[in-house]
Amino acid sequence: xxxxxxxxxxxxxxxxxxxxxxxxxxxxxxxxxxxxxxxxxxxxxxxxxxxxxxxxxxxxxxxxxxxxxxxxxxxxxxxxxxxxxxxxxxxxxxxxxxxxxxxxxxxxxxxxxxxxxxxxxxxxxxxxxxxxxxxxxxxxxxxxxxxxxxxxxxxxxxxxxxxxxxxxxxxxxxxxxxxxxxxxxxxxxxxxxxxxxxxxxxxxxxxxxxxxxxxxxxxxxxxxxxxxxxxxxxxxxxxxxxxxxxxxxxxxxxxxxxxxxxxxxxxxxxxxxxxxxxxxxxxxxxxxxxxxxxxxxxxxxxxxxxxxxxxxxxxxxxxxxxxx
Length: 324
Prior knowledge:
By secondary structure, the chain is α/β, with parallel strands linked by helices.
């Protein structure tokens, strides 16, 4: 983005920043990062990580500086070094292959994603065909579909997909969802499926995770008052992309997804007196503070944190690392 010079001190206009809370790291992301850090502390570098541990380039770069090596496939990992599976989850063939090779491996899959895996496996054991509501190609979807044999699961991405799906045995259907979807979009898809398959088995508790839901609700609370909303997160981060969409639907005049303050186009601020600011679940708080600092260089900034929920969820790291 072009780097426009900051206004002089005497000409800095006022800017109110509505800071969404909750924002940023969730418990699953915290746990996954800790697993890589503690693995490096226990076994030294290099520790291999299959896929980005979380979808954030700044997190990945920091861990690379500590000695983590990020790869896409297990075939790129040597047998004699530890490997960590990302927070998004992996198909069951991946840990099976690691075990066959007698590798040291750690599963950093978010426990809430693992819950979806367990639900899908339970439905399959009960002879049900599973509809997975999610986005094709996302690592979490690849990992969830990889828990079962091919043909056991059908991906549903849109209401149109829900309307088009047919079954020879409509009484034997269940659904699960990706954990990082738009809450509102998913409700529409589920409502369509329920109307067509009233006997469909459902999750005992919503599969969309608490952090995704909370961050979307927080954005809704600030969007209508903000002419501009900035969402800090990666373009391949599903929950971050959804936050931008929620902001646009909830009244913000414009919304942009940025990786950091360096990606801000200051032309976006023309006519803006109130900025909404949030961060996806894999974006560190340092990036949020970096955006606020960049704004302070150009505006007289006042910050108001808008809190819509309190989060106290903590997930334990694997026992093998707890004594490190």
